[in-house]
Design brief:
38% of the residues lie in helices and 15% in strands. With 382 residues, the protein is α/β, with parallel strands linked by helices. The protein has a seven-stranded mixed β-sheet with strand order 2-8-7-6-5-3-4, sandwiched between helices. Helix 3 (74-89) runs parallel beside helix 4 (104-112) and helix 9 packs parallel to helix 12. The structure holds pyridoxal-5'-phosphate.
């Protein structure tokens, strides 16, 4: 039995075109981009091409407003944005705030600062899973140095009004560094880093069909950060370490595939239809289901469904045994027994199990129709 993979917010399959780029890069252009000879120059070209592609896709063609730092993925990009900025700006104040629905890569980076005497706070979100500007401004104090707010939430898919909040925060205190985790946004919604108003923006390759272990941090030109470690001084000394050239080339190709032409709009429409299909099939068959975060402003590839009175984990395992691979939430977050902070933040009932369905470029309508049948049967068996 081949599985129906609906866990693309966790990670995605590497696209064939991307794997081909990785192979070519590893076999033919394996030089170190820091080397002065032609093999180094060939490797450097891959990095330049990938940087150009990513910068164009995020609304900063040619890097007019900022530049990219290549990292090992979303977690490192978040750590570099949050910790790097906080440590650079500590003379301005030692207070950092973040939204209650941030990924642990941001949340735990902020808490790491507590050991160095920082005050750390979270601002709440509405029951629709959206941050409200007043709540952020209430959390901002005289000594706030960093504000972190994600663009798309990884559990419920809600889109945060980052541009509006960044504008309001900068009006209050222009020197605050705003970090934005856009890991779940790249290749899923339009991104314009210049309009976003953030000073650093984090991305990861493996959420859009590049391999795991590569990511990027876009840094506004005048933003200040300090490196997390030292070494050979690559990337202006801000991220030492030999470049992961095949990974970087892969991310460039994956971004091209995700964002070129009308591909994004076409996929977005398809994914919205898939979410709609799952929900309407459940409703039509009398299964009680609600969309976590409501039916509002959501990224198209994630739909998080709460099933009244059904425990998430057993449902997840039944779905898996019948060939549908998804993620669970509710009372416990995946593999840990702790409540999901995101579902807690939106006031989700602990009695209603949450299953997150997330789509990728390989997901087909037949997958969704079959998954809907399996889901309905599974829920009815409880
Ligand atoms: C919103 C968000 N931020 C950060 C990360 C971490 O990215 P990575 O797995 O590449 O370290 C993830 C991955 O799940 C994510 O969804």
């Amino acid at each position: 039995m081949t599985s129906i993979y609906l866990d693309n917010a966790a990670t995605t399959r590497v696209a064939i075109e991307v794997a081909a780029v990785v192979e070519e890069c590893m076999r033919a252009d394996y030089g170190n981009p820091s080397s002065a000879h032609h093999m180094g120059i060939a490797a450097e070209k891959w990095i330049k091409q990938a940087s150009d592609r990513v910068l164009a896709a995020i609304g900063d063609p040619g890097g007019q407003a900022g530049h990219l730092l290549w990292t090992s993925g979303g977690s490192e990009s978040d750590a570099l944005g949050v910790l790097g900025a906080a440590r650079a700006l500590k003379k301005r104040g030692k207070h950092i705030v973040y939204s209650a629905i941030e990924h642990p890569a941001v949340r735990e980076s902020a808490h790491l600062l507590e050991r160095d005497g920082w005050r750390v706070g979270a601002f709440s979100v509405s029951s629709a899973g959206v941050t409200e500007v007043e709540r952020v401004l209430d959390a901002v104090a005289e000594d706030t140095a960093v504000v972190a707010l994600m663009l798309v939430n990884n559990e419920i898919g809600t889109i945060q009004p980052v541009a509006e909040i960044a504008r309001a925060v900068k009006e209050r205190r222009p020197c605050i560094h705003i970090h934005c985790d856009a890991v779940q946004a790249l290749g899923k919604i339009d991104i314009d880093v210049r309009a976003l108003g953030a000073d650093s923006v984090a991305f990861a390759g493996h959420k859009l069909h590049a391999p795991k272990g590569v990511g990027a941090l876009w840094l506004r030109r005048d933003a200040r950060i300090v490196p997390l470690w030292t070494g050979g001084g690559q990337q202006d000394g801000l991220r030492s370490g030999t470049y992961n050239v095949p990974g970087i080339a892969a991310m460039g190709e994956a971004v091209r595939l995700a964002c070129e032409g009308d591909g994004l709009a076409e996929r977005r429409a398809r994914w919205m239809e898939f979410a709609e299909l799952l929900v309407s099939a459940a409703h039509q068959s009398g299964v009680s289901v609600a969309i976590n975060g409501g039916d509002g402003h959501r990224a198209p590839h994630i739909v998080s469904l709460a099933f009244a009175g059904i425990p998430a984990e057993p449902l997840l395992h039944v779905l898996e045994s019948r060939g549908v691979l998804v993620s669970a939430g509710s009372a416990c977050s995946e593999r840990s027994r702790k409540p999901s902070p995101v579902l807690t933040a939106i006031g989700a009932s602990r009695d209603d199990g949450t299953i997150r369905f997330s789509f990728g470029r390989d997901t087909t309508r037949q997958d969704i129709e079959r998954a809907a049948e399996i889901l309905i049967d599974a829920v009815k068996d409880f």
